[in-house]
Structures are given as structure tokens and as C-alpha cells.
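Subgroup meeting minutes
Present: P.N., E.W., G.H.
Scribe: E.W.

1. P.N. recapped why we're keeping a running log of single-chain structure predictions: easier to compare across weeks, and new members can see raw inputs and outputs side by side.
2. G.H. added today's entry (159 aa).
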Amino acid sequence: MNAMRTMILGVSLALASTAVAATPPVAWSALNAEQQALLAPIADRWAAMAPERQQRILKGLERYQHMTPEQQARARDRLQHFKRLTPEQRERMRHRFQQFQSLPPEQQSRIRARFHNFQRLSPEQRRELRRRYQELTPEQREELRERMRERREARETRG
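Output recorded in log:
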């Protein structure tokens, strides 16, 4: 059970990615029994946490609790993957996420749509696409990105 609590705590921390406005701290005694049980691994650090971090954790915990069992399993898998990354990889991932969050909503939507299109490809098609991209020189990659930008801008001006 303790492993499950730790897992749920980790998932809630991973899901708590959006900034929350400055708020007063949340007392441990103000948490309900279920929240206290799930957050038990960090009970001793709770009072010392910044109120914003407490809010992010609680928001992530709430999102986790409303997920289907399949979604919870995916979230736990993603957390395990994140834990296996090196500190440098984790920092790079955080940085990319922050960059993504700073983009305008329409650009975020385009990126999500491209990602979903990529995910719909068969594993073999994805491998082939990655292989072809990795074989490009940095200059060729930049040319490809520029062509894609031009196509996108042309589509946007047409429609």
C-alpha cells in the first residue's frame, strides 16, 4: 500500500505542472482523510512546502483521482519513465515543457495535432520517419523546418 501511495504522490507531482496563483498555505489538518493517506509519504515536508507547490500537488492529486484506471496506469507509467531519466534529461524535459507553455494557444494546438498525427502512424512508419530525420545534417533539418513554416503560413493565409 505504501508503494501505491508513493506512486500516486509521484503522479500527482508530475501532473501538477501548471502555475497556481499565490495562496495561503494549506494546513495538513485541512486535507481530507483520502488526501492525507495518498500524500502520507510527504506528510513530514508538507508544512515546509511553498503554498504554490501545495496547490500544484493538490491540483494534480485531484486530476489523478478523477482519471479512469487506464489513465491512472498511463500516468504511473509516465512517472516511472520520468524517474529513470538522468537529471540532465529531466531538466531538458522541464525546459521544453516551459517553452511549450509559453507558446500561444494556437501554436500549442498545432504541435499537439502534429504529435497526435505522429502517434497514429504505425511503429514502423515512426521508426522510418525518425531514421530519415536523424540522417539529415543540421542544415538540412533547418531547411526542412523552414519549408514546413512556409507551408503552414501559406495554409493560414488561404484559409
